[in-house]
Amino acid sequence: MQTIFGYLEQHKREMKETLIRLVEAESPSRNKLLSDRCGQVLADLFEELVGGQIEKIEKESVGNQYRFSIGSGQEQILIIGHYDTVWDQAAIPLHEEDGILYGPGVFDMKGGLTVTLWALKALKSTGVDLNKKIVFLVTSDEEIGSLHSRALIEEEARKSELVLVPESSISNSGAVKTFRKGIGIFKIEVTGTAVHAGINPWEGVSAIDELVLQLQEIKKLDNREAGISINIGTISGGTRTNVVADHAEAMIDVRFTTKAQGQMLDAAIRSCLSFIPRAVIDITGNINRYPMEETKEVLTLFSELKEIAAGHGYVLQNGGSGGASDGNFTATLGIPTIDGLGPMGDGAHAVNEHVLLKNLPYRAALIAELLERKLT
């Protein structure tokens, strides 16, 4: 019987064609028309390559989402991905150079969608017994916070024994991700009292002065050794130089490595009290995603992947990311989740975004052979 890796190596040209079709179907997160076209391309590819069940989940303001499935049984394995990208239409060109494919979303994460489609095709084509259900859930709003897909992701995760995330691998090394930081986004608004800055400045309340004091206090939570970072992303306020500002606001990004840290940061930021009498503070926002922590179960999954890779002459490494993914949602539910299973490349969200085409069969084999182990 033909091996999974051998089958995929024989079809590397078709894998490249699949990836090109997906990248050509541009899919900016906030462009529903283009996103829906890309979603349909993805559904067509699944039907052509894999077969199985296709469920389209209609969405009003973002692209439609898809639940693909093959196999049967009481047990379920979940694969999650997204087809939306950060790129506006025609922002960067699709082109190939020296075996490297450049283009919008090719690394994050249409390369991962491609290797997943071909991993599933390889399982069916090489006769693997699909005695469990494999669900491939593809969403359309990951790059803008997953507000329209989080509930669906969590619903499917609760049915699953493990979750695979074919997001972009760690740049250049191809390492998979066994942990990811959590992320919180907060907005702090300050209301003061405007007065003339020359005639009666001490009768006013400067919202900017208060905001500066608040941000200095919040920055004290930054702790590099503990993996906690506080980024003041934007600041605005005031109207003119000769007017005491009656409004100021800032957006704050927080990153952390454990759920306990996230809870601490949320409580600390929300409990801020004003330094200047009569200044009014309003804090909104929340913890968007808790971390994907590196558990014993996750490291066991990695050890299996490492063994599979070694069988094909590759040394697979693991690591983490300060960025979050939808895998954070599933990991927070306690479902073993391993991320970064997409092909080797670099340049996520950058003009040099690319993947190594020769790496596609190997990365598809990693997913397929791990699934094969879990199906027996």
Report on this structure.
The model has no long low-confidence stretch (mean pLDDT 97). The strands form 4 sheets. Strands 1-2-6-3-7-14 form a 6-stranded mixed sheet, with helices on both faces. Strands 4-5-16-15 form a 4-stranded antiparallel sheet. Strand 1 and strand 2 form a beta hairpin. The chain has 10 helices and 16 strands. It starts with a helix and ends with a helix. It is of the alpha/beta class. Helix 1 crosses helix 4 and helix 4 crosses helix 10.
Distance between the termini: 17 Å
Mean pLDDT over all positions: 97
Inertia-based shape = elongated
Radius of gyration: 24 Å
Largest sheet: 6 strands, mixed
Helicity range:
25-40%
Please give the number of β-strands.
16
**Within the largest sheet, what's the order of strands?**
1-2-6-3-7-14
H/E series? HHHEEEEEHEHEEEHEEHEHEHEEEH
- In DSSP terms (H or I, runs of 4 or more residues), the helix count works out at 10
- Given helix and strand content, the structural type is alpha/beta
Bin the strand percentage: 15-25%
Low-confidence stretches: none
Task: Output the keywords.
376 residues; alpha/beta; six-stranded mixed sheet; four-stranded antiparallel sheet; 10 helices; 16 strands; 34% helix; elongated
Topology:
Elements: H1 4-10, H2 12-24, H3 32-49, E1 53-57, E2 65-70, E3 76-82, E4 95-97, E5 100-102, H4 106-125, E6 133-139, H5 150-158, E7 162-164, E8 176-180, E9 182-191, H6 207-219, E10 229-237, E11 247-256, H7 259-270, E12 280-289, H8 296-311, E13 318-321, H9 327-332, E14 337-338, E15 345-346, E16 354-356, H10 360-374
Parallel strand pairs: 3-6, 3-7, 7-14, 8-13
Antiparallel strand pairs: 1-2, 2-6, 4-5, 5-16, 9-11, 9-12, 10-11, 15-16
Helix pairs in contact: 1-4, 1-10, 2-4, 4-10, 8-10
